[in-house]
Amino acid sequence: MVTFLICLALLVTAYFTYGRYLERLADVNPDRKTPVERMEDGVDYIRLPRWRVFLIQLLNIAGTGPIFGAILGACFGPIAFLWITLGGIFFGAMHDFLSGMMIMRHDGRSLPEIIGIYLGIPARTVVRVFSIVLMVLVGAVFILSPAALLSNMVPVISKDIWVWIILAYYILATMLPVDKVIGKVYPVFGVALVAMAAGLLGVLLTGQYPIPELTNLHNYQLDPEALPIVPTLFITIACGAISGFHATQSPLMARCITSEKKCRSVFYGSMISESIIALIWAAIAMAFFHGPTELGEQLAANGGNAAWAVDVISNTTLGKVGAVLALLGVVVAPITSGDTAFRGARLIVADIFNIDQRPILKRFAVCIPLFVVGYAITLINFDIVWRYFAWANQTLAAVVLWTIYVWLARRNSNYWVALVPAVAMTFVVTCFVFVSPQFFGIENRVLAFILAGITTIGFGFLANTRVNPKVIIPEEGGLA
User: Fold this and answer.
1) DSSP 3-state of 444
2) CA dihedral sign of residues 122, 128, 131, 137
3) CATH number of 204's domain
4) How far is Cα 128 from Cα 40, in angstroms, rounded to an integer?
5) Number of domains the chain contains
6) Distance CA 145, CA 438 (A)
7) How far apart (Å, rounded) are the C-alpha atoms in residues 139 and 26?
8) Are 39 and 107 in contact (CB under 8 A)?
9) Residue 58 lies in a domain
10) Span 197-211, pLDDT tens digits
11) What's the rounded mean pLDDT across residues 253-282?
């Protein structure tokens, strides 16, 4: 349990230390007007209190990633604790906070528009398409996973019916003003998510289930050759450590924050909270099944189904009432990410074509094609959808990290806080492309690493050309 407690303490401490350092780096100014103070429209730009914005952001980014991803990542062994902790502090929370600050400084516009400012028009064009595809993939994934869980919890209603019920909710949440559905139901959902994490933490602290210690960097996967730590662990545990999807959700809350001083708690704090949730699930998964090897064996015997592990762990450790709360939290997390994924896609499309989102008919016109495509994706095998979603998620994170690097470098700030993670994540996602069977499937690992290294250097060179552009664009409202 020592490793677990140290990691937990580091995550909490980082919020008050590294988080404050990043605040100074971003030159947070409580007197600077926020987007909602300049552009309030009653639909997307709406003033919300800090506690509500924090809960919405946490639920926006949580999904099943810090739960399912942490359970699957725990099969690698205690090294998962290291990636969740260091990744969460120096990669994910930094990524979420500084990208959130960039978005705040540019009127809360969608992520592709911000990337276009700092990485150029070609990058903006690619990321526009890439982000919309990712948002729809996220929406589809987070229709399927909660529908499967709900059909197990309430077997009288089939999975197909749950898909339609969730889809109907998504349409309402995407089209209505942010304070009508999302702003009202998220606090209730937040209680379930927090109760789930608190209940499992209590179980771990009793010592009934011994948590493995990090004594080496051994890969405990049943087939470590097929699933090497680099790059697979960093793709498997995404949302609990770093996720590009988070930056696509930040514009939603950047349009509701009333002071820059609230950004650390909203952006950095929500990611640290998500890392804590992932840390708890990785620990309980290894502890409950008596180690990572046994966890891997049990998952393999049940089709690699992380939802099965959640059900068994919750019912055994928390009793009936606790299990209901835990399972509700697991169901709520993806639903509250799926609805805002579609909402984020609507905002991206609206920003691309400058479509006024105040008239509901215009919102409807943008939303319907997105939902048609999203539903079509639900008809594809879930495993295939999830594999490509996970890679796309981390690829977008790498792009956002390069954007943060350019932003900091232009401001003559300490760009190393973004450069090191940007290089690392670019190497991971390009390495995955070369070694994974779903892409090139190169069996020679050394060759794959060399190719990934060359590709990473190339991306770094391209990003560096954007550090000193001929035209400097002002931050507040500065879009070209």
Assistant:
1) coil
2) negative
3) 1.20.1740.10
4) 25
5) 1
6) 22
7) 31
8) yes
9) yes
10) 888 999 999 988 999
11) 95
Asked whether 69 and 382 are in contact (CB, 8 A), the reply is no
Residues 6+ apart with CB under 8 A from 87: 234, 237, 240, 241, 242, 275
Quote the pLDDT of residue 480: 38
DSSP letter at 34?
A: P
Q: What is the mean pLDDT of the chain?
A: 88
- Residue 480: Cβ-neighbour burial (10 angstroms; 0-12, 13-18, 19+): exposed
Domain contains 20 = yes
The identity of residue 288, as a single letter, is: F
pLDDT score of 176 more than 50: yes
Residue with the larger pLDDT of the pair 330 and 474 = 330
- Candidate from 57-61, 91-95, 97-101, 250-254 with smallest mean pLDDT: 57-61
Q: Are 385 and 229 in contact (CB under 8 A)?
A: no
Residue type at 465?
T
CA neighbours closer than 13 Å in the CB half-sphere of residue 117: 26
Phi-psi label, residue 167: left if phi above 0, alpha if psi -120 to 50, beta otherwise? alpha
Confidence of residue 28 (pLDDT cuts 50, 70, 90): very high
- The average pLDDT across 44-57 equals 90
Domain-embedded: residue 66: yes
* Reported confidence tier of residue 326, pLDDT bands at 50, 70, 90: low
- The alpha helices in 244-381, defined as continuous H runs, are 244-254, 263, 269-288, 292-301, 306-353, 360-377
- Residue at 392 is within a domain: no
CA dihedral (363, 172, 266, 283) in degrees, to 10, reads -130
Among 120-134, 180-194, 358-372, name the one with the lowest average pLDDT.
180-194
> From the CB of residue 54, how many other CB atoms can be counted at a distance below 10 Å?
21
Report the alpha-carbon distance of residue 429 to residue 414 in Å, rounded.
25
Kind and range of the H or E element at 102?
A: helix 93-105
Cis peptide before 78 (omega within 30 of 0): no
Domain of 370 in residue numbering reads as 2-380
Question: Does the bond joining 231 to the residue before it have cis omega, within 30 degrees of 0?
Answer: yes
* Rounded Cα–Cα distance for residues 53 and 178 (Å): 11
DSSP3 helix / strand / coil % (the chain, rounded to 5): 75, 0, 25
- Between 93-105 and 382-410, two packed helices, what is the crossing angle to 10 degrees? 60
**In which band, very low, low, confident or very high, does the pLDDT at 478 lie, cut at 50, 70 and 90?**
very low
Q: Which two tokens stand for residue 56?
A: 């919405």
> What's the rounded Cα separation, in Å, for the pair 128 and 177?
23
pTM of the model: 0.89
Inter-residue contact 374 to 394 (CB < 8 Å): no
